[in-house]
Amino acid sequence: MTLTETRPPETPDDLAPPPVERGIAAVVATGEHKRLGLLFALGGLVALVAACAAAALFHLPAFGDSADAFTRPGSRLASASTIFAFVIGIPALWIGLATYVTPLQIGGHRLAMPRLHSFALWLFLGGSILAGLSYVIDDTRLNSLASSVPPAAAAGERAADAVLLLIAGLVIVAVGTLLAAANLLVTVLNRRADGLRLVHMPAFSWSTAATSLVLVLSTPVFLAGLVLLYLDQRYGSAIFASGIGARRIWEHELWLLGRPEAFVFFGATIGIYCDIVATVLRRPLAFHAVSRAAAAATPLFSLVAWVGATSLLDSPFPPFGTGLAVLVAIPAALAVLTFLASVRGAKARLIGGAVPFLAHFLIDGLLIAVLVVAAVSEIEGAETGLYRNGNVTLFMLGQTVLGLAAGYLYWGPKLRGRVPSLGMGAATGGLLLVGAVLFAAPSYLMGLEADNGIAILGAVGAAIFALGVLTLLPLVVGPAGDAPSDPYEGLTLEWSAASPPVRHNFDEVPDVRSPYPLYDTRSTTEASA
Amino acid sequence: MASSMLALPAAGTTGAGVEGRRGILPLGVTIVGAGGLMVMGGLVAAYLALKNGVRGVDWPPEDTSFDNYTATTLSLTVLMAMITIEWAAYAIRKDFRGQALFAFGLTAALAIAHLNGLGYLINGFEFGVADSAYAAVVHALTLVPFLIGAIAVGAVVLVGLRAVGHQLSLANYALMRAAANAWHIAAIAWVIAYYTVYITK
Amino acid sequence: MFNAVSKTSFTAAAGALVIAIGAIVATSDRVAFTVLMFSAAIAAAIGIAIFYFAPRDPVVPVSAEVEAATVRSIDVTDVPRQSPWPLLGAVAVTLLGIGAALGKGLIVIGLIFAVVAAFAWLGQVWREHPSWTQAMTDRINDRFIVPIGLPGTILVLAGLSAVSLSRIFLAVSKDAAPVIGIVVAFAILGAFYLLSTRDTLSRSTISALVVVSALLIAGAGLAGALKGEREFHHAGGEHSSENLFGIRADEDGFVPANLQFPAESQVVIEFHNEGDTERAFAIYEEKGGDVLLEAQRVAPGATVEIEWSTPAPGTYFYQDDLNPDDNGNVTVVEDASEGGEVDPGTNPTTTSTTAP
Predict the structure, then answer these.
(1) Global ipTM
(2) Does domain B24-200 bear CATH number 3.30.200.20?
(3) Which range among A131-145, A289-303, C257-271 has the greatest average pLDDT?
(4) What angle do CA A142, A143, A146 make, to 5 degrees?
């Protein structure tokens, strides 16, 4: 058989669109950003619910002393809840939302490297399975990374298989996080619609870029810490028993609160809120350059957490370890000021996604009240780690998940073509708010030397929080609905796509000459009419 | 907004669209590789913290011998491979296929030799992983560049195979650039480890 | 082009540098200083990479045609093609992770998967290149896939299934194993029957089914391997106490030091290794003499049942071939002695061997 050796020149225009993915292939082999985003979101929701279930069990008296639920390093349930919430669940939820929404906001029709993102998704799944297995196969106490005290490793002794499996699982999840973050950053930079300038990107896309940059910088440091932890536990090298230097390594590279990831996802929610508020107010934010800068800056400021872990600079503002770490709150506060400045004269309309946003501010108020009480009243227990851990629960878990939930509700029409009602938003926001408060309550109260029996409140709170997370499930799974493409009269580019969007997102991308192209189009149309 | 009219290029011909797509792979590899270098940063931080935290104790421990010859040879090898991969990139740009294949082969050979030598170096440490904190962190500092190097070697070999198959040219030069960047990052990772363990100690 | 994101990256680098210097001056915290300095350098490097590889943010004079444009068309052919190889790659990485935690064998399997995934991914990208023609695909199929690749893949899948199922059968109870075998067999039969009744079946569906089934079986096999084998007793029922003899090895040597067996009988020696090192239990005519029982290797913590046909009455010699100083006498007598049960200890791995 003679093979024709002439090779045709590259003619991308001659290529037919690839066939539509169907069946199992649509899940396991997909490279489409919308499916990948939904899969990440589903994984994040499952992980969060599992974390809440573990936390609820841990607070029940039958499962042991829960007086130091967050600080005790060895309990299997406590470890599972913190790992599945903060290392797996919340990052997966953010990645899912960013994967789905960011290409729509920048007028793109795909991710920059779809197969890399698919690889990251399955790494997340594989690592999560290993981490979950580690909690099932052995009763060995597993460190939750939530304590600032490193685990002891007997010199020359190999730790149990469960511990090593957990470390391996966390390494794989961290690699998946790094790859997904890098891909999102490249997507924002290189997959924008023709003519869309970076300064015209919406706030959420800006916060995606900044959060991705921080994750690219901080996740590898976590990986380095895990490598050292692996050597420590696998071979018994007793690295973390080697004095003050080793303690610093633990605090900065492994301790949950000592790493930028503790704050970066909170920072990511500022971008979500900027877009929500603009839509609620039906107009561009006043000083929108400031709000977009704040949306980018808040994640970037989370890098100061590396300094924040140093106990020599104890901060009066927990969960911030030092005064420097309070810097994270400054750009967030600036964003809030732009929200307030935009309210004047606006004809606001409440939408489902706005309710968790409002709940977020209730928690802000609660946190401030708690801090003031602690500072002013000189109650003895208010200085304890347990009391401060209540702040950690409200801030890191409550506010971050509320922000992500607001995002899922806000962009709900784009996800599965169903417009979340105000009632659904209220249910989600209310359950998450009440759940977070009740979950944190035992830490506050036991810090003030209340009876250990109060821990049952934590179990109730965790269960309610899990219900709140589950209310997001219909937005992520199930048959696609047929919502209008722009149910909210949105201002940004994603609202020009169908709900849910077609395979290539846009048949045509509107001309983008500002951060609010649909608002421009509407204003121009109204003016000419 | 009427106040800031910008002339935006037509879609698909010039401007951000095509130009953006071309830069995806090299930028992506560079960013992920930067993450790999941050892993080295975390390990170097651990090394320095442990070194500083053991005042009064020898660091490195007494009687630790250093195979400076092998380590220096490895450093020179990675630097040579950096040059040959850039030669391959140059040849692809200029459509010199023969030179490109030769340079790829040379780079692969040097890179594999580097990995082999690094494996020999790690196996030849006189201390076990569990002997001390120093031993553990030095093992980590040498194992991570090994892993990064292995991934980079894989990238170079796979892209080299595409060159063999007439699928690498100026039209998809981004692929070549990505493979070259991957090797450069692996080389930098080793140089960081070499400098920390063998130079500054 | 120094676009807004690259400037943001440089700003982050500058900020990290300032905070790093502040950290080392204020706290002498070397970890924070080093990590932040690296962050500054890496953020700056990312900014430079963005400068080189990210597109411009163009600002050029307005032209009438462009100003009139209100929409931009997109390339609908530029959508990602499906690919299962990222999943396989992730499986490989997961296996490598399990191997790093549990044992080298899985690392080897993970590496094999990784190589397969890498080349399969390369193959797909290769076929997607515009220079690739259908004729080339046909030639590859005719010369490689059909004669070598397909049978090889089937062999690998069959081997994987056999090994995985064997791990499952070894892990579950004696009564559950045949039930599971029957269920699996009927499940496979039923699945293939259902497939055969369909008029059309896409290649991707078959591939996906094969991959998912392989993953399920392999996962179950892995779980069985992690659980470990159930305790075995030799076919034919429990050993009678007359035939069962216990010996254990610990750091100090063997207990009992001297063994006694009935002459010219089939006995079972239950050897339990309670030490940290591997043992190789062997019996000889005499010290340095001919071998009567080939060395039986026993891993630390494992319990092995060794069948041995005892010789004529007499005094013989046993030793640990790996540690010859650990040895003792074997006395074979006419009368059978009582067998002794030895406490198997915690987490034993029990296998049966028959002496040659």
Answers:
(1) 0.90
(2) no
(3) A289-303
(4) 145
